[in-house]
Amino acid sequence: MDLDPEDVFKDEEDDPDNEFFQQSESSKEYVVYLVDASRKMFSTTCPGNDQKDETHFHTAVSCIAGSLKTQIISRSYDEVAICFFNTREKKNLQDLNGVFVFNVAEREHLDRPTARLIKEFDCIEESFMREIGSQYGIVPGSRENSLYNALWVAQALLRKGSIKTADKRILLFTNEDDPFGSLQDAAKKDMTRTTLQRAKDAQDLGISIELLPLSRPDSEFNVSTFYADLIGLDGEDLAQFMPSASQKLEDMKDQLRKRMFTKRVVRRIGFHIANGLSIELNTYALIRPTVPGAITWLDSVTNHPLKTERSLICEDTGALIQEPPKLFQPYRNENVKFLPEEIAEIKRISPGKLRLLGFKPLSCLKDYYNLRPSTFVYASDQEVVGSTCIFIALHRSMLKHNRFAVAYYGASNHPQLVALVAQDEITSAGAQMEPPGMHMIYLPYSDDIRDDEEIFPDTEEDAPRADEDQIQKAAALIKRIYVKDFSAFQFANPALQRHYAVLQALALAEDDIPETTDETAPDEEGLTRPAVVRAAEAFKHSVYGDSYDEESDMGKEKMSEASRKRKAIAENAAKDYDWGNLADKGSPTWNVFS
Description:
The chain has about 600 residues and is of the alpha+beta class. One of its GO terms (molecular function) is helicase activity.
């Protein structure tokens, strides 16, 4: 059997399924949307984006619908379930009253969102009262606790998977801050106790419960009445909860069609410090380029993803080869055979661990050493207990002495030296802006750095230099158009925005393609401000002079030196021939240029 010998020792660095682009099973997220469907959710209104009043139920449904559409793009492997409580009809595996699990055919209750699910959920308000119905929450004289039942159903839905391989969350939408307010004395205490215990049982299983409150126009949602105990809020967290919760709700309503790599563990690596002392680190990919999703081949009948399988066929007999293939490398007219294990061992230069080599001042770390996105690392006690304590001590010492660590990263596909730069925690208004940890910067090899003389060779004519007045005018112009508090996260890729909008319209069979905003376009209104116009005119006059005619200059053809030489040669060659005479005689054109 012949195999391509070039593939035997092929480098794996450009593999699209490498560590930073592979969405592994361990990065999944399971979410249950728990929506209060009581009468208050339909009777209470609030101003929407178009300043028209909309019910709290409509707000919750629109938030979830937008989140599902974004999830297909940003986190396609995550699985969701939608559950209503305080409903007239019931639909759940536990057969509990007042809880309805919304789903569509050919889909499990907790599964990846589909186009059919999104289309039917978008129209649920039209048929909700007819098919599902709404009822008041917990009422006096009844032992039915719909909130307790809803938490039970949500917990049962999240039994799928393990907390070691997936994050599990319950997102609760409601505008009722005191679900047991209509009860008295013993009945109220009993239902409050059992509901809080049910929430605690879910949290003990690794399920986080997040509240998204909807405040009524006449009064603000009082989280202290009941839900602070249910989700475990106290102290400063309780005081900051309402602003953060409202911001989270706005984020869901206004999510962009972005593909964002969520801050999840990429891989775990060992960090060997000295004398047999090693700790465990989690690595995170903070910033990576965003690209359209990979093409997925689907079955033409079932529309299910196809799984690719490869079989090897013998050239001589045409039979399937059951034995594993043997790899070889030609050497001196002979094929040297290798086992797959031997190839893997040859490629493995060192175990995939960090090994500390020493420390250097931060002044030695140049900006141009950063050739690729860095990786953020933080300690983990999951396998090596005590890693966090050692990491914190090392982190504080590096910050105190303004040092960075030099280490050898023995990655299997690209081993190299790295710099570990400590980052202190940055907070603003009680919220964490930057986490504490270390950035692992991949240091370049010597041939990765080019001298200025190699990039910009000396020329006979010196490049023009700006005078002091021109520099001052340019600085004044830049100051006028400077973008304050700039962040790359403020701007979405317009091409990807359009791409995702077209995909959404095709998948949901929508007549119109959703509009997208190009946030990278110049701010025309800002550029017409008088101060900006004056600064631009002053800069133009200092560089080009008062007699500069912009329109005539725009009409001039701009050519490089090589283009001008080629044009001159062609014009001179054409002058040597009488084209009319040659055409009359019928001379072949290829003789002209021979």
